[in-house]
Amino acid sequence: MRLSRRTFVGGSIAAVGLGSAVPVAASAAGSGPFLPYTPGSFFKSRVVKAPVDHARTASFRAFMATYHEQAGVTYPVITGQAGSRWGTAFHLGRAGDPVWRLRNPRRETQILRTRGWHMADDVADRIPTGDQDRGLLVVDQAFGYTVFFGDVVPHRRSRTITVKASAIFWHHSNGLDKRNPRSNNPRNFCSRGRIPDSLVIRPDLVRAGISRGTGLGHVLQINLSETNARTFGTGYVHPMIGCEDRHVRGWGAEGERIRIAPGVNLVGRGLTGGALVIARTLQQHGAYIGDNSGSASTLKGAQSARGYAPYAGTNVTADCLKGKITWRDFEVVRAGWQ
Questions:
Q1: Helix (H, G, I), strand (E, B) or coil at 101
Q2: Per DSSP, what are the bridge partners of residue 257?
Q3: Residues 295, 184: one domain?
Q4: Which pTM does this prediction carry?
Q5: What is the pLDDT of residues 78-131, one digit of tens each?
């Protein structure tokens, strides 16, 4: 999760509504679950009609079929389920929740030490333990921003946490890191430009998708088994602004976007429930490469815990796409396209 030295700063950045805590990108009343960021954001952009890079598609499929860390796993795995501790603790923060604060912010996230974020206390019990990322994502509708943390250690009595990585994106923005020339908010910050809200499959959006016959409504981040920092000379493309430059044996630049081909009949493949919602998302909005998994490629699920099953009744499991979707169903969108 470290920030690569291969980052760029450039382009004009316009400040918009910095003092506002009201998320102007909120869904209209009664129209469904809240989704942050403005309508033209990368986060909400669809890929059904996106230009396909056929040469990159062929090389991606060949890589996924032969790379040793894929080890025959022909579909995206959903983390955080059935005992896996690699998911992300997730919460929709509301005004009635207690306020938690960050003990050791970096310069870009100082507001999380002073103002903090709204989070129910029991969320701390769902943060993964051990040596892995220990991720926490809170979409705070009351304060108008999304926060993400890596390697979290909660201090329950003081309602504080210490972390190794912290991020904040404001909901009224276009959802891009401030170092991206296309960003319109100079306070958005996340390691290498990742979009925090793309880092988890939200359980509330899964249930809404089942009810409405839709996807999640936004792009996801995929953690590829291994990327290649030599791709395109920099190792990253829009929306990313940097890469993990120690990875040079894998495929693709961070930020490259893949999708399930529009012609794939998802219902005909036997997909139902939450698995169908995820597959529709990958077909309609796709997934961009934002991290290395160090094993088979994954999508981040909301972390399950004892007594807490975030996807209960939706049939979302670690292997819910197995036997239904394969890497050969995916196409690579032209690099940097939005």
A1: strand
A2: 288
A3: no
A4: 0.91
A5: 999 988 889 999 999 999 999 999 999 999 999 999 999 999 999 999 998 876
